[in-house]
Amino acid sequence: MQRDIEKLKAYFQDAPADISLADVDLERLPRHVSLIMDGNGRWAQARGLDRSRGHVAGVDSLREAVTTSVRLGVDVLSAYAFSTENWKRPQREVNLLMHLFATTLVKELPLFHQENVRLRFLGDLEALPKETRDVFQRGLDETERYDGMTFALAVNYGSRAEIARAARLVAADVAAGTLSLDDVDADAISSRLYTAGLPDPDLLIRTSGELRLSNYLLWQLAYTEMYVTDTYWPDFDRWEYLRAVRAFQGRGRRYGGVVNS
């Protein structure tokens, strides 16, 4: 994806002492960055606030992550917003999140239009409230022709359920005779995942210091570089993003073989 150098330099002005735009190689950026946005509740509780305030604050960080990705020229940004397990949370919190998804997307659509961002969703959306589904569909319809960065939001997403769904689709095609058993390979599975057509993530960023994948993109993250920061998601900003990219660029990606130089 092309980047506007002047906008890029202006966006990364006033850098902190430990990181700046000059610390990353713009020719070796990850093509797909994925986010596990963790720590909203703990951020709020540490400030004596209701957990809901953390979710609201986290919207600002996601907006900044989208803008940062666009400025850098990242092709795909994906983010884990609501898992299949999150339905177990208190009903009040779930209701707030569903409402927040809908209202936030409406507010953020002008940003997607301005930055030529195409929206995509990962997960089973049928279980969501109609209000949320309708707004999501509006976002898909209004951005489907954009050819800039793709922003993929995982909502009601669980990787094991996704892989099981792909297996069912493969089995149905084999039973129908449209797919040969001999042609069932990794590509056959990948093409039936929610992420079909997207490159696998090069870099996964997880906030709040947790060292687990939480049932997120288990298939797609096979050779992804991981970066974990203790920063809670509402405090994650463009400079934390740059620190993650710098760490990514300092690693040798082997893919099971020799270092890819």
Overall description:
By secondary structure, the protein is α/β, with parallel strands linked by helices. It has a domain of 178 residues: Undecaprenyl pyrophosphate synthetase (3-Layer(aba) Sandwich), CATH 3.40.1180. The protein has a six-stranded parallel β-sheet with strand order 3-4-2-1-5-6, with helices on both faces. Helix 2 crosses helix 3. The mean pLDDT is 95.
CATH superfamily of the domain at 29-157 and 200-248: Decaprenyl diphosphate synthase-like
The overall pLDDT, averaged over residues, is: 95
Share in β-strands: 5-15%
Q: Which CATH class of the domain at 29-157 and 200-248 is shown?
A: Alpha Beta
Task: Count all strands and give the number.
Answer: 6
First-residue to last-residue Cα separation? 22 Å
Strand arrangement within the widest β-sheet reads 3-4-2-1-5-6
Please give the CATH architecture of the domain at 29-157 and 200-248: 3-Layer(aba) Sandwich
Number of helices, counting only DSSP H or I runs of 4 residues or more:
8
Helix content percent band: 40-55%
Order of helices and strands: HEHHEHEHEHHEEH
Q: What is the CATH topology classification name of the domain at 29-157 and 200-248?
A: Undecaprenyl pyrophosphate synthetase
Contiguous runs where pLDDT drops below 50 for at least 5 residues: none
Task: Put the structure in a nutshell.
With 261 residues, the protein is an alpha/beta fold. Helix content is 42%, strand content 13%.
